[in-house]
Amino acid sequence: MMMQPTPPKSVALLLDYLHQEPVPVEVNITVLWDPDEETGVAGADVLNCYPVRSYVKVDSHLGINAPDLPRLAREFRDEYYLVRGRYRDVNGCESSTNLQVDGALAPRVLDATTCLLFVCPDHATAWADRRRALLDGCGGDIFMISLQKELTFINLLFTQHAKAPSSWAHRKWVAKKLVDLAAQRDKEYNNIYQWASSEINTCSSVAERFPKNYHAWTHRRWVFRLLFKTWISKSDSTVTAEDCIETKLIFKLLYKELENTQIW
Q1: Which one of 7, 88, 167, 246 is at 20 to 30 Å from 215 when CA atoms are compared?
Q2: Can you say whether the dihedral through the CA atoms of 223, 225, 228, 230 is positive or negative?
């Protein structure tokens, strides 16, 4: 299967907006324009503006034109399946469950899934391919940076799509990898504490928008369970000064949570 050297314009434009400074922190799918009002024309003449008309970025806010969503979704899916087909050809895999990501193509799968997940946030296969891409050829500090960027992407996605189970499952996978990496290093307790605080803040932000979001509340509980298990696993050995520091950080976070009357 031959793959296009570059992605379609709708994909390229969206990726360009996502990397422009200031980087978007909120995305909204809405009606951005009225064909008759803005251009005074309709039909075929308006179509000539696609896909430039499909996105608007103001400061750190990104808008996606809702009427263009069906067409964007088709193009995003075509790009994604084209990339996956290329992976199967490269690795000689007929089964998608055995699919391995080629290192040179890993950035392409991240780009393709980024666009697709903005319109299909609960696409479990796309999330699985992102995990393969993140794991491919990464290790140490580079892998940790990639995971942190992944959390930033999910935060952006949550501003529009906060109820997709697959996205929350992917977030747990990323968080577990981050905590495991931090726990393996000496004197990394502050990193774990900062991660937990950030996760709690994310859950609070989602819950403020959608108070009955089951996934946000269960993820909040999962963060504390993971934090406690990480502390217990390190406390099985001889207690050190660093362990005492970690304990203080954990209880500091717990006390702060108890004092947060908004969640009650």
Answers
A1: 246
A2: negative
